[in-house]
Structures are given as structure tokens and as C-alpha cells.
TrEMBL record:
The lineage of its organism: Bacteria, Pseudomonadati, Acidobacteriota, Terriglobia, Terriglobales. Residues 58-125 form the Cupin type-2 domain. This is Cupin domain-containing protein. InterPro entries: Cupin_2, QDO-like, RmlC-like_jellyroll, RmlC_Cupin_sf. It comes from Bryocella elongata. It comes from the Bacteria. It holds the Pfam family Cupin_2.
Length: 178
């Protein structure tokens, strides 16, 4: 066993915190959330990390992705499958499977699947909280690839009003299309 470095002082282990394991294709307890035509599965929540970060597995069908927005937390995307167009401060970049991008806090951004195949990415938000926003405005769906139900015009208007009303609570600002 290695001796601890004397000058390093770490707090003791917190045995109240447990190992978090998400079996994305097997765990019926994971929240799958339909939102803006996409499906987001929370694999690590803020409760798991003492609020430090959350991890969201995102299934983005062709044409999917959120509108332009910004928020006061860091957001990192790791593309597992497919490709997407990331718009950062107005500049577009194509990001492909294997790539990682980080969106600094407060920066205007958007991502969009402009391809003909679904895109899968992991989203890491630090600090956590975005997963709660998604849960509050989204629609529960059965699996990580189940699309949310199509909304009527009236339902879409109610959804947008709900998102606009809740966005400030989750430190998010929706922006106009460029």
C-alpha cells in the first residue's frame, strides 16, 4: 500500500455516498425524457454527485436538437454515434462520433442533427441541475430511443410557455434564432 503524501489533506471518504451505476439498456428505473423531439436519459443525477455534475445520454433523431440558448453552467458533449452541427457564438462546427466539445458557461449555443441518421451523445453539465429542468418540462417515455409524442399546435404552445416560464429557475435563457 502506498503511503499518503503528508502535504495533501483530503476530507475523509463519505460512506453515505454510494456508487452510481446506470445500465442504460437494462435499467427500467432510469428516467427517459422526451423533449423537443429528442430523448434524454439521465444516467448520473446531481443527487449521485452531491450536485457537482450530471450526465445525460441524448438520442437526437435527424432534424433534432434544442433551439439557441445559454445557461450559467458548463456543458460538455461527447459524441458516441453520428454527427451534429454545433453552433457556438454564431459559428457552426460539424462534430462527429469520437469528438468532444465543451460549451463555457453563459455562451450562446445550439446543437442540431443535420444528418439522416440518429445521433447519440453524452452531455455532462457542471454543476448539476439541467436534468431537473428536463424532467420538469419533458414527457416521460419508455426507452432511451422512444420519441416523445407529437404535439398539437395548442400543446406545442403550452409546452413553449412552460419552458419560458421555468427557464430562469434553471439558470437558462432561450435565445432568438440567428
Amino acid at each position: 500500500m502506498t503511503e499518503p503524501v503528508a502535504s495533501l489533506t483530503l476530507p475523509p471518504d463519505d460512506p453515505a455516498r454510494a456508487l452510481a451505476v446506470a445500465h442504460i439498456n437494462e435499467d427500467d428505473g432510469l428516467p427517459h425524457i422526451g423533449l423537443v423531439g429528442d430523448t434524454y436519459t439521465v444516467t448520473v443525477s446531481g443527487e449521485d454527485t452531491n450536485g457537482r455534475f450530471c450526465v445525460i445520454d441524448m438520442h437526437i433523431p435527424p432534424g433534432g436538437g434544442p433551439p439557441p440558448h445559454r445557461h450559467d453552467f458548463e456543458e460538455t458533449f461527447i459524441l458516441l454515434e453520428g454527427e451534429m452541427v454545433a453552433t457556438f457564438r454564431g459559428a457552426k462546427t460539424v462534430v462527429r462520433a469520437g469528438d468532444t466539445i465543451n460549451i463555457p458557461a453563459n455562451a450562446p449555443h445550439q446543437f442540431h442533427n443535420a444528418s439522416s441518421s440518429a445521433t447519440r451523445l453524452l452531455c455532462i453539465c457542471s454543476p448539476a441541475g439541467q436534468e431537473k429542468f428536463f424532467a420538469e418540462v419533458g414527457i416521460p417515455v419508455a426507452t432511451r430511443t422512444t420519441p416523445p409524442p407529437a404535439l398539437t399546435g395548442e400543446e406545442q404552445a403550452a409546452f413553449i410557455a412552460k419552458v419560458v416560464a421555468l427557464a430562469p429557475k434553471y439558470r437558462t435563457e432561450l435565445l432568438k434564432e440567428a
